[in-house]
Specification:
By secondary structure, the protein is of the alpha+beta class. It has 12 helices and 5 strands. The protein has helices spanning about 5-15, 30-35, 50-60, 85-95, 95-100, 115-120, 130-155, 155-180, 190-195, 205-215, 215-230, 235-245; strands at about 20-30, 40-50, 65, 75-80, 105-110. Helix 7 (about 130-155) crosses helix 12, helix 8 (about 155-180) packs parallel to helix 11 (about 215-230) and helix 10 packs antiparallel against helix 11 (about 215-230). About 35% of the residues are buried.
Length: about 260
């Protein structure tokens, strides 16, 4: 962590700890994950009382912004107010990207105690859902490969571009699930994927080439690499139902429904 980020965290925490409505302060985002650049902002979640959150929500503003705490050019503290119940809900049934917010998170203030445990619960990979996730990701992986070749047949450049990217995404998500690693959202997807231990040699190079070139040979190379790595769980009848019937629409209209 850069020294100026640490100074900003200390200043923001000191200020917020004086608010009676604030129960805790959690640092997340690039600074917590170790992905920060020198000029990155500091992301925080401010745990507050239910009444205070309700009042902020009623005003249509549950965000927090502070430029004074950041003693470096272009810096600012970017925050959001949440309640302990929000964290509990994520721990119970949150999406992977919502859980990832709490992975590596740093609790810098805890008025009542127990916030560290809440954060750890929210950041847990839902291993009980691992097989279901791999079934759904493999269904997406296979479907987007078919969409890609349909796009080539129709000379549909938009669909080919979209299909290649989605095909790459779900190839990567299969390996994240295989390694019981949370999907961090698109911003840090490749960075997190590059760090998982169980994956084929050359996977990242193959993915990056596909994303850059979007050629049929790149699609085939990635497909064979993924298919040869493991016997991925899938059910063709369930796959088809999932792909076409989610929320009475097509799965591509709901890109995160596979979570």
């Amino acid at each position: 962590m850069f020294e100026h980020h640490q100074a900003a965290i200390e200043a923001a925490t000191k200020e917020l700890s004086t608010w009676d409505e604030v129960l805790g302060v959690i640092i997340y985002g690039s600074v917590a994950h170790g992905f920060a650049l020198e000029n990155s902002d500091v992301d925080i979640k401010i745990v507050c009382t239910d009444d205070f959150f309700t009042a902020k929500e009623h005003m249509g503003n549950v965000s927090y912004f502070d430029r004074d705490a950041t003693p470096y050019e272009g810096g600012y503290v970017d925050g959001e107010f949440i309640t302990p119940m929000h964290i509990e809900r994520i721990a119970a049934d949150g999406s992977e990207s919502a859980r990832f917010d709490f992975q590596d998170a740093i609790v810098t203030f805890d008025r009542q105690g127990g916030l560290e445990d809440l954060v750890r619960g929210a950041a847990r990979y839902p291993v009980e859902q691992k097989r279901r996730k791999m079934v759904r990701f493999y269904a997406q992986f296979s479907a987007w490969k078919a969409h890609y070749y349909e796009a080539l047949r129709r000379d549909n450049h938009y669909l080919a571009h979209l299909s290649a990217l989605q095909f790459a995404l779900y190839a990567g998500r299969l390996f994240l699930a295989y390694n019981e690693t949370l999907f961090p959202g698109h911003k840090w997807f490749l960075q997190v994927l590059s760090g998982v231990p169980q994956k084929p040699a050359g996977l990242m190079r193959c993915l990056n080439t596909l994303v850059d070139q979007k050629r049929a040979e790149d699609v085939e190379r990635l497909y064979n690499m993924v298919s040869d790595f493991a016997c991925w769980p899938h059910d063709s009848s369930q796959d088809r139902q999932f792909l076409w019937d989610v929320r009475m629409g097509r799965i591509e209209d709901f890109p995160f429904a596979a979570d």
